[in-house]
C-alpha cells in the first residue's frame, strides 16, 4: 500500500510550533506516512541543524522564506512557491501551522485539488488583537477556514472561541491537545546537577519560568511577583530561562526592585532546558494568553507543580488545587499561591505527582500521534 503523503507547512519554526512539528516528524509511522516540511527559518536560523537531521533521515524539507509580518508582495511570492510545491509533489494531506503558514498554506492548497487540509493555529491573533486589527485577523481566518477541512484547536476554550467568533462552524473544528514527553524522574544527583548548571544552591527554594521574553509571557509581571515572594521569603531564588525583546526591560525592572542577581536570575536560552526542570520547586507562568503551553506541559511531566495565570484554556491543563494553582493576572495573588506551595512540601509533592499522571493520561505523545495519524488517514 502506498504511503499517505503529508505536507506540514509553517512560517514559525520556534517555540511551541517547532515542538509540535518536531514530535510529528520524530514519531509518526513512516511506514504509513511520507511526511515533508515546507517552512521558513527566517525567524530563527538555529533550527537548521535539526532540519538537517530530518533531511538525513529521508524527509523532504523545503525552505521558503516566509516572513512573520504582513508583506503583500513577498507573501504573494511565497504563496506561489508553496502552491508549486503542492502541485508538483501531490500531497494527500496538507497540515498547516500558525498564522502566516496557515493562511498561505491553505490558500495554496485550495489550488491543489484532492488534498485534505487541516490547520492547527496554536494561538490565534484574535486571542490578543483588539479593535480594527482583531476584525481584520478574524476576516482573514474566516476566509482561510473556507479552504480548510478541519481546524484543530488545542483546548476546548480555543474551540469555543473560534465558534463564537464565527471563524468556523462547530462541525469543522475539534480539539487535539499538545503533548509532552515523559522524562525519567530525576534523583537527588540529577536535581543537584541541574541546579549547579544554573548556579543555584542545592537547598534553596526555586521557582522558574522557561520561555521567550515577549509581551505574551509578561515577564514584568513575573518580576513583580518574584519581588513580593522575596519579601516574604528572602531565601527564595527565581530563574527565567529564555531570551527575547523584553529582556532589557525585565533586567531594568528587576534592578529597580533590588532583586536582580540575588533573588532573580535571568538566564539565557538553554538548548537543554528540558533537563533543567528537575531544579525547580514551582513553575510560575505569568502569561497573557496561550494556545497550550509546552513549558507548562513539560513542567508537569517532570513532576513540578504549576502556578499560572488563569487565561482561557489553562484550567484544561492545570487543575486548581489538584495539579497546581490558578490565579488572576495579579502579582499579589500569584505570589500568595506560590508561597502556599513553597511552604507546604507535602502538597507540592502531591500536586507534582498528580501533574505527571495527568500528562501521562491526557497529553502523551503516543496519544497525540495516534490521533493525528487517524486524521491523516481520514478516519476522523
How is this fold's topology laid out?
Elements: E1 4-10, H1 15-27, E2 33-39, H2 48-56, E3 61-63, H3 72-89, E4 93-97, H4 99-109, E5 116-120, H5 131-145, E6 150-153, H6 156-164, E7 173-175, H7 188-197, E8 206-210, H8 219-232, E9 237-241, H9 247-257, E10 264-267, E11 282-285, H10 294-301, E12 306-309, E13 324-327, H11 331-342, H12 345-362, H13 365-376
Molecular structure report:
- This protein has 380 residues and is of the alpha/beta class.
- It has 2 domains: 189 residues, Glycogen Phosphorylase B (Rossmann fold, 3-Layer(aba) Sandwich); 175 residues, Rossmann fold.
- The protein has 13 helices and 13 strands.
- The protein has a 7-stranded parallel β-sheet, sandwiched between helices. The chain has a 6-stranded parallel β-sheet with strand order 10-9-8-11-12-13, sandwiched between helices.
- Helix 6 links the parallel strand 6 and strand 7.
- Helix 4 packs parallel to helix 5, helix 8 packs parallel to helix 9 and helix 8 crosses helix 11.
- The radius of gyration is 21 Å and the shape is globular.
- The model has no long low-confidence stretch (mean pLDDT 94).
Amino acid at each position: 500500500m502506498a504511503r499517505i503523503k503529508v505536507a506540514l507547512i509553517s512560517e514559525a519554526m520556534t517555540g511551541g510550533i517547532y515542538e509540535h512539528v518536531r514530535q510529528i516528524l520524530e514519531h509518526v509511522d513512516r511506514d504509513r506516512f511520507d511526511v515533508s516540511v515546507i517552512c521558513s527559518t527566517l525567524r530563527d536560523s538555529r533550527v537548521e541543524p535539526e532540519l538537517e537531521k530530518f533531511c538525513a533521515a529521508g524527509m523532504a524539507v523545503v525552505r521558503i522564506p516566509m516572513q512573520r509580518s504582513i508583506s503583500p508582495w513577498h507573501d504573494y511570492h511565497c504563496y506561489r512557491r508553496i502552491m508549486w510545491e503542492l502541485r508538483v509533489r501531490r500531497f494527500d494531506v496538507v497540515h498547516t501551522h500558525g498564522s502566516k503558514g496557515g493562511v498561505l498554506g491553505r490558500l495554496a492548497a485550495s489550488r491543489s485539488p484532492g488534498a485534505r487540509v487541516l490547520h492547527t493555529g496554536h494561538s490565534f491573533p484574535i486571542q490578543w488583537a483588539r479593535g480594527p486589527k482583531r476584525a481584520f485577523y478574524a476576516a482573514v481566518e474566516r476566509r482561510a477556514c473556507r479552504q480548510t477541512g478541519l481546524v484543530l484547536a488545542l483546548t476546548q476554550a480555543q474551540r469555543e472561541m473560534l465558534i463564537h467568533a464565527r471563524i468556523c462552524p462547530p462541525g469543522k473544528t475539534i480539539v487535539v491537545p499538545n503533548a509532552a514527553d515523559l522524562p525519567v524522574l530525576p534523583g537527588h544527583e540529577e536535581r543537584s546537577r541541574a541546579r549547579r548548571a544554573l548556579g543555584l544552591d542545592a537547598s534553596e527554594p526555586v521557582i522558574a519560568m522557561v520561555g521567550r521574553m515577549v509581551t505574551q509571557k509578561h515577564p514584568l509581571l513575573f518580576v513583580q511577583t518574584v519581588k513580593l515572594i522575596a519579601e516574604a521569603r528572602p531565601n527564595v531564588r527565581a530563574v527565567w530561562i529564555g531570551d527575547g525583546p523584553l529582556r532589557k526591560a525585565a533586567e531594568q525592572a528587576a534592578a529597580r526592585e533590588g532583586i536582580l542577581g540575588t533573588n532573580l536570575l535571568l538566564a539565557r536560552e538553554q538548548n537543554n532546558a528540558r533537563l533543567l526542570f528537575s531544579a525547580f520547586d514551582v513553575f510560575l507562568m505569568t502569561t497573557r494568553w496561550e494556545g497550550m503551553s509546552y513549558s507548562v506541559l513539560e513542567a508537569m511531566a517532570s513532576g513540578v507543580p504549576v502556578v499560572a495565570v488563569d487565561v482561557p484554556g489553562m484550567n484544561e491543563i492545570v487543575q486548581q488545587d489538584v495539579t497546581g494553582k490558578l490565579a488572576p493576572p495579579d502579582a499579589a495573588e500569584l505570589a500568595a499561591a506560590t508561597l502556599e506551595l513553597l511552604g507546604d512540601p507535602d502538597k507540592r509533592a502531591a500536586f507534582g505527582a498528580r501533574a505527571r499522571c495527568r500528562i501521562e493520561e491526557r497529553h502523551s505523545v503516543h496519544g497525540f500521534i495516534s490521533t493525528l495519524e487517524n486524521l491523516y488517514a481520514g478516519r476522523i
